[in-house]
Write a structure and sequence with these properties.
This protein is mainly beta and 296 residues long. The chain is built from 2 helices and 21 strands. The radius of gyration is 21 Å and the shape is flat.
Length: 296
């Protein structure tokens, strides 16, 4: 489907499905709603079976959105034009009925709302901010917009909500079958991440190490890399130890933290995390890594 993607700083552009798949190790619920444009998503690029099996036209690009635990494909085209729009809060694909907007809803459990202008169909990847939401009294609420069919509301992992999760101002994304809750709601909602982050800045590819101290157990770790970078690895040490331990990826970092760190931000173990950035070929200038975490 030919079209134009308005891309903001949160989204990534990669060369292949393999690079897109690698992002799944870095992103979690805190990245929900972000997009990835794969320049060549063809099923046999760069060799047989390494692309997206649903993309059958050689050279086609594809656009994917992150739901919090997995990607969904929004569109594909032989000529997918990318426009950088720093004023946009959300990535918007310009198709007939696609939108990202705010709407007040009414009801309890069977929620309804009316967008203006109205939509005539749900489109996979649509993101809506719902306001004035009265807390759900059941675990299987539904949402209908502009009189369209009511769709189930689930958490970002496509599992049932708990009573009271869906309340106040809530952000949902349509995954083609249901509305997944990716933000807002009750502070106790399992579908919502209350996260902090540390920013690691690199001036050029000559200076690719930055570090920061942390205190207490981190329960979820993810990272976001700006486009100059291809990957990151880590080194860690306790504050009482001088020797650094090398870790290849976020999975290894989380395992080390779970094994060695206890307590909270106010009274827990003090430790250091060093980020080692790898620049893309030809990458030279400023780059950043955002390490997102949820303290215990």
């Amino acid at each position: 489907m030919p079209g134009v993607v308005f891309r903001n700083y949160k989204d990534r552009v990669v060369e292949s499905i393999s690079e897109c798949n690698a992002i799944t190790e870095l992103w979690n619920i805190t990245n929900a709603g972000q997009g990835v444009i794969v320049k060549n998503a063809y099923k046999d690029f760069p060799s047989v079976g390494l692309g997206d099996a649903t993309v059958t036209t050689p050279g086609s690009s594809a656009y994917y959105k992150w739901l919090g635990d997995s990607f969904i494909k929004i569109s594909e085209s032989e000529s997918l034009d990318v426009v950088f729009d720093t004023s946009a809060f959300e990535t918007i694909i310009h198709t007939q009925n696609s939108s990202s907007t705010t709407v007040s809803v009414a009801g309890i459990d069977a929620y309804t709302g009316n967008l203006n202008p109205a939509i005539t169909a749900y489109v996979k990847g649509q993101t809506f901010t719902l306001t004035d939401v009265v807390a759900n009294a059941s675990t299987n609420p539904t949402l209908s917009l502009n009189g369209l069919a009511a769709k189930n509301i689930v958490n970002y992992k496509n599992a049932a909500l708990s009573v009271g999760d869906f309340v106040g101002t809530v952000v949902v994304i349509y995954d083609g079958d249901a509305f997944r809750m990716i933000g807002g709601g009750s502070s106790n909602a399992a579908s919502v991440a209350i996260a902090k982050y540390s920013l690691f800045h690199f001036n050029s590819n000559l200076f690719t190490e930055q570090f920061s101290s942390f205190r207490g157990l981190i329960t979820i770790v993810s990272s976001y890399l700006t486009d100059q970078l291809s990957s990151v690895s880590f080194e860690v040490r306790l504050d009482t130890v001088s020797v650094w331990t090398a870790l290849a990826n976020l999975v290894a970092l989380q395992t080390w933290i779970n094994t060695n760190i206890t307590g909270s931000e106010s009274s827990g173990t003090v430790y250091w995390v060093k980020v080692l950035a790898t620049y893309k070929v030809g990458g030279l200038g400023d780059a950043e890594v955002r390490l997102t975490y949820m303290p215990s």
